[in-house]
Write a structure and sequence with these properties.
Layout lengths: L6 H8 L4 H7 L1 H5 L12 E7 L6 H41 L2 H4 L3 H15 L4 E6 L4 E4 L12 H9 L2 E3 L3 E2 L6 E10 L6 E10 H9 L8 E5 L5 E4 L43 E7 L4 E7 L1
Antiparallel strand pairs: 1-8, 1-11, 2-3, 2-7, 4-6, 5-6, 6-7, 8-9, 10-11
Length: 295
């Protein structure tokens, strides 16, 4: 159900605080930091050293323990980043709800504001505003967008009546493999849905952030979606079988599931244990026996 702005927020906005000044100050973002967020868990896999027949059990246990620690670190970093994206889109939706330019459909000014936000963040590669019927009102510089009401993330935000983070999807407009943050924009007086905002994060950009503080010649990172399809690897980007408009991808874009790389990694029902697990399996792509830690 969205979060109603506090009286303090209303005062700031009544003083015509611009969207740009909000982005630069980040005030609203931190006011929402205690919001309850239900986000999909993205499985994280850290694949490590090649295991030979001469490796003794004690040394193997040390490797497994180290990789479990790496998995925990990357998982926490990923969840924090996804939470940050959620708070960004939720807060921007609140600010644009009070924007006179959004109310009057001042496309020129809104385009300029969105381009400035994109420049400040240097993370989202496309930002767009839509009316309640999914028609584009404003967008950052790029390929002109059409009606987005059929987009998976718009439908999810509409159903939730709030903000959402999508699974990794292939952009139906540009073919860019991305994660989307989207939210409804509500009339501040009536609570009625008056539009949508969506932020696009290229999977490659998300992966670069995760691996920026994790570099190793003998370790690799894999991320999978809820269908167990690999959507990112530190060895290179994988694709998925889902498009942002809900249609199936072309045969060239069919996804690779994690068990097609590591046969033993067929997901079982969640046993409630949130600690990282590990096993040894044969990598069908690299033709190597390796230790895998996952969460």
């Amino acid at each position: 159900n969205g979060i109603n702005p506090s009286q303090e927020n209303k005062v700031n906005l009544s003083e015509k605080q611009s969207v740009i000044s909000w982005v630069e100050s980040q005030n609203l973002r931190f006011k929402f930091r205690l919001a309850a967020i239900a986000l999909a868990v993205i499985p994280v896999f850290v694949v490590g050293a090649i295991i030979g027949v001469t490796v003794n059990n004690a040394f193997r246990a040390k490797i497994q323990a180290r990789e479990k620690g790496d998995t925990e670190f990357i998982n926490n970093k990923l969840q924090l980043k996804i939470r940050e994206n959620y708070l960004d889109v939720q807060s921007m939706a609140n600010v644009f709800a009070y924007s006179p330019d959004f109310a009057s459909r001042n496309t020129a000014k809104l385009n300029a504001e969105l381009n400035k936000i994109k420049e400040i963040y240097n993370y989202y590669d496309s930002i767009a505003l839509f009316d309640a019927q999914g028609n584009v009102i404003a967008q950052t510089t790029g390929k002109p967008l059409g009606n987005h009401l059929n987009r998976v993330y718009i439908q999810e935000a509409k159903a939730k009546n709030g903000a959402v983070i999508s699974e990794p999807l292939i952009s139906a407009t540009e073919g860019i493999f991305s994660v989307y943050a989207a939210s409804v924009i509500k009339n501040p007086d009536t609570g009625q849905n008056i539009g949508f905002i969506r932020l696009r994060i290229p999977v490659q950009k998300l992966g670069e952030i995760l691996t920026s503080s994790y570099t190793s010649d003998d370790k690799f990172l894999y991320l999978t979606d809820e269908q167990n399809q690999v959507f990112f690897s530190s060895q290179g980007e994988f694709s998925t079988s889902r498009r942002s408009d809900g249609q199936g991808a072309t045969s060239e874009d069919q996804g690779t599931t994690i068990d097609q790389i590591f046969p033993k990694l067929k997901w079982q029902e969640d046993d409630g244990n949130t600690t990282p697990k590990s096993l040894i399996d044969y990598n069908l792509l690299d033709k190597k026996k390796q230790i895998i830690a996952y969460k």
